Structure formats: structure tokens, C-alpha cells
Amino acid sequence: MMLCGAVLSVAMSVLPAVAQEAAKKEAPKPAASPSQAVLDQWNDIGRKLIAMAEDFPEDKYEYKPKPEQRSFREQLLHASDSNYFFTNPATGQKMPTEEDPSKNKLKSKSEVVAFVKKSFADGAAAIKAKGDSGMSETIVDPYGNRQVRLGDLAYELIEHSGEHYGQLVVYYRVNGLVPPESRPKK
């Protein structure tokens, strides 16, 4: 019995080294191109917010943790409206002139879901159209009165969406729900 334990112990200590040697023989995967890296992050946060928009019960879409805060619906619309602060300049359009133009227009869950999907699809299309060289183009950010690279602006909006994703996780939890991303994977 002790011999079996000793053999098993030696095997367990050797296996990681063998796996590391095998991994060293394979060439590492190349880094994503600059535009592909932006696109991957853009699509990832978009996927998470779309899943929430589709999943959250419609009868709770107007839920607010406190009266002065945005509702679940307004949070989604704010994040989606904000995407156009990247998409518009990336596609040669003017920056949006108001913060949340859709919040008084889109009321039903189906309208909100469609808009969240559209805002992320529009941004993804702009990133693809710009490509690597386009992500290095600079624009003047009228709100910060500074020059900014389009890729950096995209990352700012990705971060912004991530912040709202975190807030929406709280909306789920205080309603006794589990966000889609936190559920066990099948």
C-alpha cells in the first residue's frame, strides 16, 4: 500500500512537468491584432448586457434600488446610448448631443433588447470597418477637449459598460435573482 502511495506521489509530481514540456513544444498563439482585441472586449461586454436585457423579468424593468437611481431599463439604455460616443465619431458622425436620448422613447422589454443589440452591433461594425490602422486614428473628444485614439475611446466605453454591468448585477441580487453570467455553465 505504501508503495502504491509512493508511486502515485511521484507520478503526480512528474505529470505537471511533462505537460509543461509539451506546451513548450507548441508555438504560442499569436497576439490578437489591435482591432481584434478591441472587438473581442466590445463583444464580450455586449454579450453580457444583451443576456441581462433578455433575461431580466419585464415586470421588474422599472426596478430602482432607490428612487433617485436609474431603473434597470434606464441602466441598459444609458450604457447602450453611451456606445454611440464611440460609434458616431468612428463612423464620421457627430457625437451625441444628449446623454440618454432613448430613455423616454423605449419602454418595453422588446424595444430595449433590440436597442441594446443594435448599439453593440453598430459598435462592432465600426471597429471592423476601421481595422487596425483605424483604431490608431485620433479625434478630438469635445467633452474632454483632448485628442484621443479611437481604440482608447472604445476601451473607455467598454469600461463604462462594465461599470453598468456591475450595477445591474446588484439589481439582480436584490431581487433574489442570479445574473446569467453567474449561473453554472452547462
Description of the molecule:
- By secondary structure, the chain is mainly alpha-helical.
- The protein has one domain: dinb family like domain (Four Helix Bundle (Hemerythrin (Met), subunit A), Up-down Bundle).
- It is 62% helix and 4% strand.
- It has six helices and two strands.
- The chain has a two-stranded antiparallel sheet.
- Strand 1 and strand 2 form a beta hairpin.
- Helix 2 (34-55) packs antiparallel against helix 5, helix 4 (84-90) crosses helix 5 (109-135) and helix 4 (84-90) runs antiparallel to helix 6.
- Pfam families: DinB_2 (PF12867).
- Residues 86-106 are annotated as: Disordered.
- Keywords: Signal.
Show the helix and strand layout.
Layout lengths: L1 H24 L8 H22 L16 H11 L1 H7 L18 H27 L2 E4 L4 E4 H25 L12
Antiparallel strand pairs: 1-2
Helix pairs in contact: 2-5, 2-6, 3-5, 3-6, 4-5, 4-6
Features:
186 residues; mainly alpha; Four Helix Bundle (Hemerythrin (Met), subunit A); 2 strands; DinB-like
Summarize the structure.
This protein is mainly alpha-helical. The protein has helices at 2-25, 34-55, 72-82, 84-90, 109-135, 150-174; strands at residues 138-141, 146-149. It is built from six helices and two strands; from the N terminus they run αααααββα.
Distance between the termini: 38 Å
Overall form: globular
The count of strands amounts to 2
Instruction: Please give the largest β-sheet.
Output: 2 strands, antiparallel
CATH superfamily: dinb family like domain
CATH topology value = Four Helix Bundle (Hemerythrin (Met), subunit A)
| Radius of gyration, taken over Cα atoms and rounded to an integer in Å | 22 Å
Uncertain residue ranges: none
> From the helix content, strand content and strand pairing, which structural class follows?
mainly alpha
* Fraction of helical residues: 55-70%
Instruction: Write down the secondary-structure element order.
Output: HHHHHEEH
Summarize model confidence as the mean pLDDT.
90
In CATH, what is the class? Mainly Alpha
Protein name: DinB family protein
InterPro entries: DinB-like, DinB/YfiT-like
Pfam families: DinB_2 (PF12867)
Organism: Candidatus Acidiferrum panamense
